[in-house]
Amino acid sequence: MTLRIPSWRWTLIGLFLIASLVRVVFVLSLQPGFYFWDSVKYDRAAVSLLNQGTFGAEYDRSPAYPLFLAGIYLVLGKSILSIRLVEAVLGGVIAVLLAVIGKRTVGRTSGLLAGLIWTFYPLAVFLAGLVYPETIITLFLAGAVALLLAGIGSEPVSGQRPAVSEAASSVRPLPLIAAGLLMLLAFLAKPVVAATFLGVCVWLVLWKRWRSLPAVGLLVAGFCLPLVLWVAVSSHYFGRVIISDPRAGRMVDRVGSTNMDEVRKGRIQRILEDPGAFVVHVATEFAHFWQIYPERVVMSDQSLRDKFHERDARVVRKTVFNANSLTAWASILSIGPVFLLALGGVFFLVRDRRWADLSLLAFIVLSFAVAYSFFFTQLRYRIPVEPYIILLAGHGLAMLGELVWRRRAAKVSQNPVTRHRAAA
After folding, report:
1. In which domain, by residue range, is 196 found?
2. Residue 259 and which of 155, 158, 371, 387 are 20 to 30 A apart at CA?
3. CB neighbours of 116 closer than 8 A, spacing ≥ 6?
4. Which pTM does this prediction carry?
């Protein structure tokens, strides 16, 4: 089954408008405050950037998101609603990027269905009101993947033809350099993106072999050269080198143990002393990465929420977005079917031997799953790679629709009345 689309460009415009509108309506319904304490920290760092030119002495997170917020405040004024409206529009852009990526990997119909799923997907809609860096990480990653596919010369999928593995060997430097730059921007918002960057480079080598060297070189240049520039600028302007999350080094030792005597040994020493416990920890966290309803939400503790509200009145005290039965069932009834459809998408890609397309999506998703499993996982950490699960779901839905269409057409063709009318 193939959707007859009169104009792909107008389809993308319509997808963008619908996805943006859904998110705008949602953010307008939210309370005028922050739902999580981390959002307050990002906001304070952004204000400090505008007023003092620094992130502030207490800021201990990645630099990209406060810079993003500072840009919004500079242009639109200091307002939580301004942030949410901008991120609502970015959610529409992500829907379009999903369709574009899908067109070059799993197919136009599958990509369009993925964009539509993202448009109404509760977790994706909620992202617009979160005031967390996940929005820009998701955007930068999707933009990087779209540019990567354009840079290596992959053609839009037609029928069952594999797009990536049989793509032309021509390399377009500008899209690949831009893809590397967007990967860097995502890394400056969340250090785990380094694993995704490495995974994409490995994927290129795996499927392009020696022909991948120019593409990998351009990707690395787009990532590393601006990184060197940022290191120099941050060292001069802020008085210290700010590459990514300053907490990463401390978290390496702390995660996996609450015993301070154990923590002081350092994570590497603990692994050497008890490798079995480390393996169990990684396996447990890897399984938890695929959770389909929210857990480990610290702000679900009402006493803690009250405490933060006293420290900053903008923190919302009462909300339905805590980890409760309502949010749990909303997540289960939306994420569950998407995961099942994604498994269907994997089945059809394997059936059609489209290994390159499948492995690209798998490498991106697994880069987050594996990297976070060494430390700590929760549903929110999966959001930046959720679009690639949705792409698989879109493909599963498209292929199931095609199967239904073919069976229906076969039944119609076998109907004696239908054949008689056709003959007449």
Report:
1. 8-311+320-409
2. 371
3. 15, 95, 394
4. 0.89
